[in-house]
Design goal:
By secondary structure, the chain is an alpha+beta fold. The chain contains eight helices and four strands. A hairpin with a 2-residue loop joins strand 3 (150-153) and strand 4 (156-159). The radius of gyration is 19 Å and the shape is globular. It starts with a helix and ends with a helix.
Length: 175
């Protein structure tokens, strides 16, 4: 994540804090993040050099009806500065600031394929118990794991991947 994404995320976080609506903004940002993640064509349209910035903003406004005005204006600024490629990282930066404020630990759950929300939620509950703290996990694909998952939170690693088990078995056999 680059410095510019962090600054955009901090700006929105500061605005949400000033309005005492951090939790509301976080929930809305998570919802929009899912929409953006599921619709790659949004990025194609917002980055198109064949569509004026004004038209891109109108498309965004019509497509994302009901979006919080502050979040919408942030996206307008991103479009004005030709930084649409930063949107995913802005979502992450903003969410990290919210979680930090709430005392929630963040981590990455590596898996060989995309996990469903329910699966991530179940793993979050289990890891929260192990960490004695609420955790928020982001799924990242790592095909080298073969199967199972690996969770990394700070310097804690919970590895229940098939690759890890094979490596342990290999290590034990060579002793």
């Amino acid at each position: 994540m680059n410095e510019l994404s962090i600054r955009y995320g901090q700006a929105l976080f500061s605005l949400a804090s000033d309005k005492n609506q951090v939790l509301e903004y976080q929930e809305e940002m998570k919802a929009w993040e899912e929409i953006f993640k599921d619709n790659e064509e949004i990025y194609t349209i917002l980055q198109s050099a064949f569509i004026s910035q004004k038209e891109r903003k109108e498309i965004l406004k019509k497509t994302l009806k009901g979006m919080n005005e502050d979040i919408l204006h942030l996206l307008f600024v991103v479009i004005d500065n030709n930084r649409v490629d930063l949107i995913p990282d802005i979502f992450i930066a903003f969410n990290s600031l919210c979680n930090e404020m709430k005392g929630v630990k963040e981590g990455i759950i590596y898996s060989p394929f995309a996990l469903k929300k329910e699966q991530i939620s179940q793993i979050e509950k289990k890891i929260s118990t192990l960490e004695n703290n609420k955790v928020d996990l982001r799924n990242q694909i790592d095909k080298s794991l073969i199967g199972g998952v690996k969770v990394v939170i700070g310097d804690h690693i919970y590895d229940d991947s098939i690759k890890h088990h094979i490596d342990e078995l290999k290590s034990n056999l060579t002793k």
